[in-house]
Amino acid sequence: MAGETDIMLATRRRSERRAYRGLAKIQFGVGSLPRDCTIVDVSDGGVRVIAENIEVPAEFTILFAEGRRQCRLAWRIGCEFGAQFIDHQRTAA
User: Fold this and answer.
1) d(CA 81, CA 75)
2) Residue 23 belongs to a domain
Protein backbone atom coordinates (compact mmCIF):
# COMPACT_ATOMS: atom_id res chain seq x y z
CA MET A 1 0.00 0.00 0.00
CA ALA A 2 2.81 2.45 0.85
CA GLY A 3 4.34 1.88 -2.58
CA GLU A 4 1.05 2.71 -4.28
CA THR A 5 0.75 5.92 -2.24
CA ASP A 6 4.28 6.96 -3.24
CA ILE A 7 3.46 6.39 -6.91
CA MET A 8 0.23 8.40 -6.66
CA LEU A 9 2.01 11.30 -4.93
CA ALA A 10 4.86 11.22 -7.45
CA THR A 11 2.44 11.59 -10.34
CA ARG A 12 0.88 14.69 -8.71
CA ARG A 13 4.23 16.47 -8.30
CA ARG A 14 5.24 19.08 -10.83
CA SER A 15 8.99 18.62 -10.34
CA GLU A 16 11.34 15.83 -9.30
CA ARG A 17 12.22 15.52 -5.62
CA ARG A 18 15.86 15.23 -4.62
CA ALA A 19 17.08 13.76 -1.34
CA TYR A 20 18.45 16.53 0.86
CA ARG A 21 18.88 15.09 4.39
CA GLY A 22 20.04 18.28 6.00
CA LEU A 23 19.29 20.50 8.95
CA ALA A 24 17.47 23.76 8.51
CA LYS A 25 15.38 26.20 10.53
CA ILE A 26 11.70 26.95 10.34
CA GLN A 27 10.36 30.39 11.25
CA PHE A 28 6.70 31.24 11.84
CA GLY A 29 6.67 34.99 11.33
CA VAL A 30 8.71 38.15 11.62
CA GLY A 31 10.41 38.33 14.98
CA SER A 32 9.72 34.71 15.99
CA LEU A 33 12.63 32.49 16.95
CA PRO A 34 13.60 29.93 14.29
CA ARG A 35 13.14 26.28 15.29
CA ASP A 36 15.24 23.32 14.16
CA CYS A 37 13.91 20.98 11.49
CA THR A 38 15.25 18.29 9.17
CA ILE A 39 14.74 18.52 5.42
CA VAL A 40 14.04 15.08 3.95
CA ASP A 41 13.83 16.05 0.30
CA VAL A 42 13.36 19.12 -1.85
CA SER A 43 12.13 19.93 -5.35
CA ASP A 44 11.78 23.10 -7.38
CA GLY A 45 8.22 23.38 -6.08
CA GLY A 46 8.41 22.30 -2.45
CA VAL A 47 9.97 20.50 0.45
CA ARG A 48 9.34 17.60 2.85
CA VAL A 49 10.24 18.36 6.47
CA ILE A 50 10.46 16.64 9.85
CA ALA A 51 9.93 18.91 12.86
CA GLU A 52 8.94 17.59 16.26
CA ASN A 53 6.76 19.26 18.89
CA ILE A 54 5.72 22.29 16.86
CA GLU A 55 2.42 23.48 15.46
CA VAL A 56 2.97 24.44 11.84
CA PRO A 57 0.90 27.37 10.59
CA ALA A 58 -0.50 27.66 7.06
CA GLU A 59 2.47 29.80 5.93
CA PHE A 60 6.04 29.96 7.22
CA THR A 61 9.69 30.37 6.18
CA ILE A 62 12.32 27.64 5.83
CA LEU A 63 15.86 28.89 6.43
CA PHE A 64 18.31 26.77 4.39
CA ALA A 65 22.07 27.26 4.47
CA GLU A 66 21.67 28.59 0.89
CA GLY A 67 18.91 31.05 1.72
CA ARG A 68 15.29 31.32 2.82
CA ARG A 69 12.08 30.16 1.15
CA GLN A 70 8.49 31.17 1.85
CA CYS A 71 6.25 28.11 2.17
CA ARG A 72 2.61 27.06 2.41
CA LEU A 73 1.69 23.89 4.31
CA ALA A 74 0.43 21.21 1.90
CA TRP A 75 -0.01 18.16 4.16
CA ARG A 76 0.98 16.83 7.56
CA ILE A 77 1.25 13.37 9.10
CA GLY A 78 2.58 13.41 12.66
CA CYS A 79 5.89 15.27 12.79
CA GLU A 80 6.43 15.08 9.01
CA PHE A 81 4.93 17.58 6.58
CA GLY A 82 5.14 18.79 3.03
CA ALA A 83 5.13 22.39 1.91
CA GLN A 84 4.84 24.23 -1.37
CA PHE A 85 7.25 27.08 -2.09
CA ILE A 86 5.20 30.24 -2.58
CA ASP A 87 8.06 32.56 -3.47
CA HIS A 88 9.50 32.20 -6.93
CA GLN A 89 13.17 31.69 -6.09
CA ARG A 90 15.18 28.54 -6.62
CA THR A 91 17.23 26.92 -3.89
CA ALA A 92 20.45 25.23 -4.92
CA ALA A 93 20.30 21.85 -3.25
Assistant:
1) 6
2) yes
Other beta carbons within 10 angstroms of residue 16's beta carbon come to 10
pLDDT in tens, 22-52: 999 999 988 889 999 999 999 999 999 999 9
Q: CB of 48 within 8 A of CB of 37?
A: no
Please give the Cα distance from 93 to 23 (Å, whole number): 12
Q: 74: domain CATH number?
A: 2.40.10.220
Residue 77 located in a structural domain:
yes
SS3 for 60?
Answer: strand
Range of the domain at 25: 2-85
- For residue 70, give Cα distances in angstroms to 8, 26, 47, 85, 89: 26, 10, 11, 6, 9
Residue 74 lies in a domain: yes
pTM listed for this prediction:
0.75
